Amino acid sequence: MRFTAVKLRRLERHLLQIEVAKRAAVACSRLSAIENGDVEARPDELQRIAAALDIPAQQLQRVYAR
To answer: How many structural domains comprise the chain?
Structure first.
C-alpha cells in the first residue's frame, strides 16, 4: 500500500479526512485524491493542508511507501 506524506501525517495525528479538509478549506474528495496520489496538490493547497496538520509544508512533499 502506498501512502503520500499527507495521508501519513494525517494518520499519525489520528485525524479524520473530513477534519483536515475542513481546516484546510479543501473539498474532502480533493483531499482524498491528493492522499491517494491521483492528483498533485497546488502550492496553496499544500500550505493550507500543512497548516491544518500543524507541520511545515516541506514535510508534505515526499511520498512514503509501506
So the answer is: 1
Distance CA 3, CA 25 (A): 22
| pLDDT tens per residue across all 66 residues of the chain | 567 899 999 999 999 999 999 999 999 999 999 998 899 889 899 999 999 999 998 888 765 444
0.90 surpassed by pTM: no
* Residue-number span of the structural domain to which 26 is assigned: 2-65
* CATH number of the domain where residue 55 is located: 1.10.260.40
- Residues 6 and 60: their CA atoms lie apart, in Å, by 6
Check: CB of residue 24 under 8 Å from CB of residue 49. Answer: yes
**2 touches 37 (CB < 8 A):** yes
Q: How far is the C-alpha of 3 from the C-alpha of 44, rounded, in Å?
A: 21
